[in-house]
Amino acid sequence: MDKMLYMIVFSALVIANMVQDTAAQTVHVVGDNMGWTVPSNGAVAYTNWAAEKTFRVGDTLVFNFATGRHDVLQVEETSFDGCNSQNAIGTAIMTGPANITLNSTDDHYFICTFGTHCQDGQKLEISVSDDSTSTPGTNPPTPSVDGPTGSVPGGVVPPPPPPSSSTTVLASFVLSLSAIALAIFH
Q1: Among 46, 53, 78, 166, which one is least packed by beta carbons within 10 Å?
Q2: Do 95 and 140 share a domain, yes or no?
Q3: Number of compact structural domains in the chain
Q4: Domain identity same for 125 and 44
Q5: Could you say which residues form the signal peptide (predicted)?
Q6: Sorting pLDDT into bands at 50, 70 and 90, what band is 144?
């Protein structure tokens, strides 16, 4: 009986830990209600938006924009400052909405390459930290979608991404092992 209780407690702890790790990722809708567009007040709109957020490795940026009217391209700082795509990181995403998962720490720079959109303020700079280096008092890593549903062009805010298939497989594996262990020690 003691072994069975041990297995139940162990399984519950493993599952709780996996759920916490999955829930720690935040989905940020870039610009909230404004979406990814040329802001009326220039680049300060996205600067102010980013200043209110805490970005961590594993978080997702959702760029809501109309396909054929905007795009999103990650660039190096010099290209961000000069609003050009010479130092692109990857290729421009031309179809909206675009989801970008933040997979490294440091500063990240995004621009729109359509016409003078970047020069007119459609550019975003964010700083990404690692969970282990975040300081107390910052935004807690809770799952959320910034901005109300239906407030972006097209009227739909995409839901947070589902847990990765590796997390799902691991959870299934742990549950299977727990069931086997319970059957053996029963």
Answers
A1: 166
A2: yes
A3: 2
A4: yes
A5: 1-24
A6: very low
Is 37 found in the same domain as 16?
A: no
Segment 14-20 shows an average pLDDT of 50
pLDDT at 117: 98
Rounded average pLDDT over 25-31: 95
Same domain, 167 and 148: no
- Rounded distance, CA 186 to CA 177, Å? 14
**pLDDT tens-place string over residues 38-79:** 999 999 999 999 999 999 999 999 999 999 999 999 999 999
Q: Which CATH number does the domain housing residue 74 bear?
A: 2.60.40.420
